[in-house]
Design a protein that fits this description.
The complex is a heterotrimer, with 2 copies of chain A (72 residues) and 1 copy of chain B (43 residues).
Chain A lengths: L1 H8 L16 H9 L5 H10 L4 H9 L10
Chain B lengths: L8 H10 L12 H12 L1
Classes of the chains: A mainly alpha (72), B mainly alpha (43).
Chain lengths: 72, 43, 72
């Protein structure tokens, strides 16, 4: 995970897929993609909209309910 | 949980404030999470 | 606006207020703050969640007060 994280922050996030986020395994990655959170920057956006509250973000990650705004 | 769906975002935010639940803006990608938080608080 | 933008991008966004975003005037800034978008990074988050789609973001900015889930 830490190597994955180092790779992620080593360059601009650009169009990196959600799977490039450390600790996002295959199952959760697929779940996030289904809900439109297919890129790392979209998940970053969700963290920012949750005001960088780690508890809220962890809770949301447990059950990434609610489509991303584009879908809804 | 459905009865929260009829609340506007502003009304939902007011309930979150009333229950002192930490929250950010209510948008399409966060609304369900906050409805769940209120449901958990009330149950 | 361009000077405002240069100031914004000259350093990390950190806790800058929503009003530090260029083209966000006083009225819109207040509206966004009322909706919980009190910091520049939270507005950035919404742009990212909208998948950096400028049309969608402009649309959203026109009316940042969301309808209730049923209406949307």
């Amino acid at each position: 995970a830490s190597q994955k994280h180092r790779d992620l922050v080593a360059e601009p996030m650009g169009e990196k897929p959600v799977g490039s986020l450390s600790r996002i395994g295959e199952v959760l990655g697929e779940k996030l993609e289904e809900r439109g959170f297919d890129k790392a920057h979209v998940v970053l956006g969700q963290f920012l909209v949750l005001k960088r509250d780690e508890d809220l973000f962890r809770e949301w990650l447990k059950d990434p309910c609610g489509a991303n705004a584009k879908q809804s | 949980m459905d009865d929260y769906a009829v609340l506007s975002d502003t009304e939902l935010a007011a309930v979150l404030r009333q229950y002192n639940i930490p929250h950010g803006p209510i948008v399409g990608s966060t609304r369900k999470l906050y409805e769940k938080k209120i449901f958990e608080y009330e149950t």
